[in-house]
C-alpha cells in the first residue's frame, strides 16, 4: 500500500529475549525491521544499496529493556513523508511492583525518536510479523523468529489478526500458530514477609549439590539461598546486594570470600 502516512501498532508478550517482531521489505533494497535483541527493542531502517552516503544508509535505534518478562508491551511506529516516530509503551503493571521500576519503564513511553532520512516509504510493500520471509536478506540481524503472543496488530487501522483469523487471501501463514495466547506453566511461590522462607533437609556425604531456580523481585536487597555453616565443610550465602547477585563462601580456616555475578 502506498500512503503519505503509515501507522503500525502492535502488542507483544514473550519470555524469549530475541526474535523478529516486524519486517517490511522494499523493491530497491530498502527495508525496516523491528526485533527483540537481548530483551531490548531494536528498530533498523536500511535505505538500500543505491544510496550514495554510507552514513545515511542505515539507521538503528534501541529502546527499552527487560521486555521479555511475559508482560504485554505496546509498540507504535508512525512514518509520514521522511519522518519516523518510534514509541514503545510498557503495560501490565500490578500494584505490587515498585514505583521506581514502574517509572523507569513508563518513561520509555515518552521517548520519541524523530528521524530525518531519505527513505522512500511508499516503496516498502511486503509486510511480515514474527519473522522474515527470506532469511539472510537483511544483513547482520539475528533472524530469530518471534516465539510468543501478538495482540492488536493494526496497519493503518486495519486489524491484521482479524484478517488472518478469517483466512483472507492477502494474508499468508508460515509455521505453527494459533489464535490463543497460552501462559507458560509456572508454579510460583511468593514470600509475603521478611520472616517467610522455605527450608529443605540436607543430605550429608554428598560431593556435589545442584540448585536451580528463577526469581523476580523489585527489591535490591535480600537473601536468596543459604546453607548452614558446618565446622568441616563450611557453607555459603546467595543474596542480592544493590541489585546484584552475590555469593559469600565460608570455608574452615579461610577468610570470607565474596563473588559477584
TrEMBL record:
It holds the Pfam family Laminin_G_2. It comes from the Eukaryota. Residues 1-181 form the Laminin G domain. PANTHER family: CONTACTIN-ASSOCIATED PROTEIN-LIKE 4 (PTHR15036:SF40), PIKACHURIN-LIKE PROTEIN (PTHR15036). This is CNTP4 protein. The lineage of its organism: Eukaryota, Metazoa, Chordata, Craniata, Vertebrata.
